[in-house]
Amino acid sequence: MNFKQLITLLFLSLVIFNCSDDDSDNTDNNEVAFTGNFFPLHLDNSWTYLVTDLNNNTNETTVNTDLLMVESESNTGYNLTVNQGDLANGIMSGILTSGELSLTETTLTSNGSIQLPIEEFDFEIEIDNALLYNTSAENETELSSQSGTFTQDIEGYPVTINYTLSSQQLQNLESYVVNTINYQTVTSAKIALNLTASITITQFGISQSLPIVDSQEVLSIVSHYAKDIGLIQAEANISFSLNATILALLQQSGMDLSTLPTSLSATNTQILTDFNITE
Question: Are the CB atoms for 95 and 114 separated by under 8 Å?
Fold first, then answer.
């Protein structure tokens, strides 16, 4: 092989190598659209979850289980129950069992409710026809969004809460490992709750509204669903902090807010451990 042939061969090798790299990158970044049954909602189907609660402030951990079952089905949808009518330990379990679910080959829709498990801020938001996932949507597509305002009495003072509850499609995955089990054909989605809160105080006949909770994402739930199985994992992160400056001013004015939590960081995780699916 002469020098000219060697140079030509090296050049062709570099071109082929670079093209291979480009093809690999494109394959990794391609979005895959799935169809199928990602939550088989047939009567008496059931799922068992290991539910772990972690307080990130104290490192305290508690472990429970949830048993979800399809309790009834109608022309409009399905209703699930948890722990034979008892309270749900998993936050996602609570959402799935709070109202009617409807299903297509690409979507799961909820008409239920969501509760924010923060002491003193104990409220429930109705979910109106919200998409929990859409396997045909592009990554990071907003699936649904609803906003609202309500007032709650805390320590004798009216607190006005403004919120936005939204869902977002994440990724469709050819495989995903949960608890050492490799599930095939998995879709994932996120639920997020953002809110602000203001407290109204009245002094000398003058009312004033003060921002006690600045705008923040207080709840985020990432869920994974496997084809022909259902929900295989959900991780909920709960966090909030009160406006320290406003809180100090309120306490200086004589308000007793000692029972009000100033911040919270917690994680609620549920992992599928067993299921019973019938066609």
Answer: yes
